[in-house]
Design a protein that fits this description.
By secondary structure, the chain is mainly α. It contains 13 helices and no strands. The protein is globular and about 70 Å long.
Length: about 230
């Protein structure tokens, strides 16, 4: 008889595997767009979200969280099939946990690079998943807390302009669902979006700048936020 022995998962290998997949989905999206991502259950399982504290995470946990959040975004952005598969495995709830963790850290520390990067990728992924019905249905189950978290995110429009842009786009997508619309209005999102409209300045040109030019708070980022806020 062969005796099976339980061994602890080698998280270094897990992180390397996730980073490798990030490279594939980022650089060769065309080659994998017709293939469903097969490992959401495992990915969601290994992304253990800690409680928000003012203390820095150990490097391995931080690296895993960021790499995993990036992989979620890259995979759901390749094809809607991945997004729907992600939703089936309770992925929306996991992304919401990442958002809550990041906002919680920022409330305590005011600035935190990891939390800002996590929000950047989490909101990009959520804005995609919210574009189809099953994704929005899963988001209803996260309300009213999710709506409250989106209101909180809007307060960082200067600190994280592009993450807030994707947050506003997420709000727009969610409003295709009447229950989500009510939750967002009840959370006071309208009153966070209206001031963003007033920052638009057409003198910078009619075309909106590339994302790279909006990573810091400037007139380009103001204009994009205003356009998206109008849409929302």
């Amino acid at each position: 008889k062969v005796e099976l022995q339980e061994e602890e998962t080698n998280m270094v290998n897990v992180i390397l595997l996730i980073k490798t997949q990030n490279i594939i989905y980022r650089r060769f999206a065309d080659a994998v767009e017709d293939q469903k991502y097969p490992a959401y259950k495992a990915l969601i399982y290994v992304l253990d979200i800690p409680e928000p504290t003012a203390e820095e995470l150990d490097s391995q946990t931080a690296e895993l969280l960021l790499a995993g959040s990036m992989l979620i975004f890259y995979t759901v952005s390749v094809t809607q099939l991945n997004g729907k598969e992600f939703v089936k495995h309770s992925g929306v709830a996991k992304l919401h946990e990442i958002v809550q963790y990041s906002l919680g850290v920022l409330k305590l520390t005011k600035t935190n690079k990891l939390a800002e990067e996590l929000l950047f990728y989490a909101m990009k992924a959520l804005s995609i998943v919210a574009s189809f019905e099953s994704g929005r249905t899963a988001m209803v189950e996260c309300c009213p807390q999710l709506a409250d978290d989106m209101r909180e995110l809007m307060t960082f429009y200067q600190q994280m302009p592009v993450a807030v842009e994707y947050g506003i786009e997420f709000v727009s997508q969610c409003c295709a669902d009447s229950e989500l619309q009510v939750a967002l209005v009840s959370a006071g999102l309208v009153w966070k979006l209206i001031p963003l409209l007033l920052t638009f300045d057409n003198s910078s040109g009619e075309e909106l700048a590339d994302e790279d030019q909006r990573l810091i708070y400037n007139q380009h980022s103001c204009n994009m936020q205003a356009v998206l806020a109008c849409k929302a």
